[in-house]
Design a protein that fits this description.
CATH class of the largest domain: Alpha Beta
Number of helices: 7
Helix content: 25-40%
Low-confidence stretches: 1-5, 7-26
CATH topology of the largest domain: Aminopeptidase
Distance between the termini: 86 Å
Shape: globular
Structural class: alpha+beta
Strand content: 25-35%
Radius of gyration: 23 Å
CATH superfamily of the largest domain: Zn peptidases
Length: 352
């Protein structure tokens, strides 16, 4: 009888321990092999499988708060020469205490490591694809497509909300602004509007032109929205510089959205006197050659105003680039190379 009681006690103890272990395991948050328990920070490499001789990984940090809350993904380095968001996330990693954090922060430090390593503008050096045009990706596709697939499955699918953090690439002189991407659901749009205001950049594009095809969502932020995850895209930084003001602007924006979601204490610092852009257009070059801008980033232009010229490699005029409508120059190429089909500038019309 005594042995039977002892056996039942030991069995109950083992079951209790196993149950506790299962509970703790269930509380883990994992992005690929990077796993963190509540109150922990864990960093590591999320692998992108190799094919055709090319493989890579995505450096990720998971900050798993001791308190329950939202899962917010912050993604930097989708384009490898956009440095202020990348540097901002490394500072943010050192700033957030998981013991006081409510929810989970997923920091994708450099989404496009091959481009970062090779210092390329726009494109992955191994397949010459723009990572931010191939979502949701393909596990059997090229390297960029496989990277997009991993980000879709391991980051977008596991978060509650996402910020795709960009800036002017190494060739782009760009003023700070955000994209508020309009979906087919008012409830989603209300959430993303709160997020874009909380991030705090004054100029906000009302973006109604993103594809609604979930199988060909193209953009990281759009992919999240089409999967029911509120997302915004931000732009803060220019010409491949590691400018301190823009690093801080990215940090403050991320923290403000975290306050909005009550992940950390305090109130969000909302954009003051936001300027809404209700129409925008990216103007591409029709020729290879050299671009000579006639205006600077942030300039106000009128319809038909000369924005710049393109000359061939012998200095002959090939094209006069004029504004399609009046508005604000959101970014303009600040380096000489002009390539057929690639952007020269973006103009936005201010909503009245």
């Amino acid at each position: 009888m005594i042995r039977s009681r002892r056996f039942r006690f030991v069995a109950l103890a083992i079951l209790t321990i196993l149950g506790l272990s299962a509970t703790l395991t269930a509380q883990e948050f994992a992005v690929g092999p990077v796993k963190a328990r509540p109150g922990e920070i864990q960093s590591g490499a999320v692998p992108v499988p190799g094919k055709d001789g090319h493989s890579t990984f995505i450096p990720v940090t998971v900050i798993h708060g001791a308190k329950k809350g939202k899962v917010l993904a912050l993604v930097a380095g989708t384009h490898g020469s956009e440095y202020p968001p990348v540097l901002a996330l490394y500072r943010l990693k050192d700033r957030i205490d998981p013991r006081t954090l409510s929810g989970t922060l997923v920091l994708v430090h450099i989404a496009n490591l091959p481009s970062f390593q090779k210092r390329t503008v726009y494109f992955n050096p191994y397949d010459f694809k723009n990572l931010n045009r191939v979502f949701p990706g393909d596990p059997n596709g090229t390297l960029s497509q496989r990277m997009a697939h991993v980000l879709t499955e391991e980051v977008i699918q596991k978060c509650d909300a996402l910020i795709d953090m960009h800036c002017g690439d190494a060739n782009e002189a760009l003023i700070p602004y955000s994209y508020w991407m309009i979906s087919d659901k008012k409830s989603m749009d209300d959430q993303t509007k709160e997020m874009v205001l909380a991030f705090g950049l004054q100029h906000i594009i009302i973006d109604t032109g993103r594809t609604k095809d979930i199988a060909d969502s193209k953009y990281l932020g759009n992919t999240a929205i089409l999967r029911g995850k509120p997302a915004i895209t931000t732009e803060a930084g220019f010409l491949g510089r590691s400018d301190e003001d823009d690093i801080v602007r990215n940090i403050n924006g991320a923290l403000s959205v975290m306050r909005l979601f009550k992940m950390v204490e305090g109130r969000p610092d909302l954009a003051k006197d936001p300027v809404w852009i209700d129409k925008y257009e990216v103007v591409n070059s029709q020729f290879d050659g050299l671009f000579y801008p006639r205006v600077e980033m942030g300039a106000t232009v009128t319809e038909g105003q000369l924005v710049g010229t393109v000359r061939d490699y012998w200095g002959n005029l090939k094209e006069e680039i004029k504004a399609p409508f009046g508005g604000l120059i959101l970014y303009i190429i600040g380096t000489p190379p002009a390539n057929k089909g690639e952007p020269l500038y973006e103009v936005g019309r201010v909503k009245k």
